[in-house]
């Protein structure tokens, strides 16, 4: 069975976390719908960093009940080496997605820095990604609710403590990059 992957990141305290939410095609529509019901009136996206603590608890608990899994790619970095850590993690993710027979990779856009991701993915997938059957694109998180899970899990894992415990049911793999 093919899967889709939705990627966002978090960086704090010398750690870089790239989180990929893995969703089977049969669950894409219902999971998107469930996520959009969690939006506050007038909001266009969920962004964990901006949420209040009680709401964060409710959100991660609801996400943990959704039919998705996540994979975390962990890197170490100084502020000036964050991009290199991301690209190491992204290269590992690309190889793992080929093993999972992933069909689509969606990354939260970082505007002018998206080119770095494209270079890494071209090297990892070869210059003819159609042969791998994996397509990739950068999308704004306001347009793709499934990116919100990766944002939440990466934030929780980086925060540690009870937040990490709450996100752990979603995490199936932790890969050092």
Q: What is the number of E strands?
A: 6
Contiguous low-pLDDT stretches (5 residues minimum) are none
> Percent helix among the residues?
40-55%
**How does the major sheet shape up?**
6 strands, mixed
Could you say which overall geometry the principal axes of the C-alpha atoms support?
globular
Distance between the termini: 26 Å
- The average pLDDT value, as a whole number, equals 93
Beta-strand content: 25-35%
Strand ordering within the main sheet? 5-4-1-2-3-6
- The number of helical segments is 6
User: What series of H and E elements makes up the topology?
Assistant: EEHHEHEHEHHE
Taking all Cα atoms into account, the compactness measure Rg is 15 Å
Which key phrases capture this entry?
177 residues; alpha/beta; six-stranded mixed sheet; 6 helices; 6 strands
Report on the structure:
This protein is an alpha/beta fold. Helix content is 40%, strand content 25%. It is built from six helices and six strands; from the N terminus they run ββααβαβαβααβ. It has helices at residues 28-36, 53-64, 82-99, 114-125, 147-159, 161-167; strands spanning 3-12, 15-23, 69-76, 102-108, 135-139, 171-176. A six-stranded mixed sheet has the order 5-4-1-2-3-6, sandwiched between helices. Helix 4 (114-125) links the parallel strand 4 and strand 5. Helix 3 (82-99) packs across helix 4 and helix 5 packs antiparallel against helix 6 (161-167). The longest helix is centred in the middle third of the chain and has 18 residues, at 82-99. The radius of gyration is 15 Å and the shape is globular. The two termini are 26 Å apart. The model has no long low-confidence stretch (mean pLDDT 93).
